[in-house]
Amino acid sequence: MEFTGETSKFGSLRICDLRKELSKRGVKLSGRKQELIDRLEAYERDFNFGKSQVVNQSEYQMVTPKEHLYKDLHEGSVIPEITMDNIENYLGSLKKSLSRESINLVNEKFLIYIKNIEETVAFFFKSQCIAEMLKHVKYNIDIAVNSHGLIDKCH
Q: Do 151 and 143 form a contact (C-beta atoms < 8 A)?
């Protein structure tokens, strides 16, 4: 799979400038240029790990079932097939693409759990993952998928 994310605003900086930016944020300074760029991007994506004001995310809120109704997702769970095409189509409708960082959060075991519940209107999935740079920062994830495996909403 190719990643079609935007070119990083840090890509044109020299290594010494990248380290200055990292130093301002109190983050690890060692590594190759791409690692430094990735670290800065992660830092910005994670809102400077709570050291800056968090953007109001109310536009992304969705109504979900009560948390205690969800069950752990396991091998025997019956859920609709969710394909990469379905994910890419949903993101494309929002003018976004699946990022390398998102895939890495799953591949590198940053995902803490996945639970689901089937309701008449959709299958709901609830998950949590650890931030790339600070393990104490966690993201809550909610996804609603219809019976055909198409993503209706996510937060």
A: yes
- Give the three-state DSSP class for 125: strand
55-80 pLDDT per residue, tens? 334 455 678 899 899 998 887 888 88
**Structure-block tokens of residue 64:** 């979900």
Please count the CA atoms within 13 angstroms of the CA of 79 that sit on its side-chain side.
Answer: 23
Residue whose structure tokens are 């670290």: 39
Cα(142)–Cα(150) distance, integer angstroms: 14
pTM of the model: 0.58
CA–CA–CA angle 97, 101, 105 (5° rounding): 120
Please state, in angstroms and rounded to a whole number, the distance separating the CA atoms of residues 60 and 83: 23
User: Where along the chain do its domains lie?
Assistant: 15-50, 58-154
Residue 87 CA to residue 102 CA, distance in Å, equals 12
Residue pair 63/119 in contact by the 8 Å Cβ criterion: no
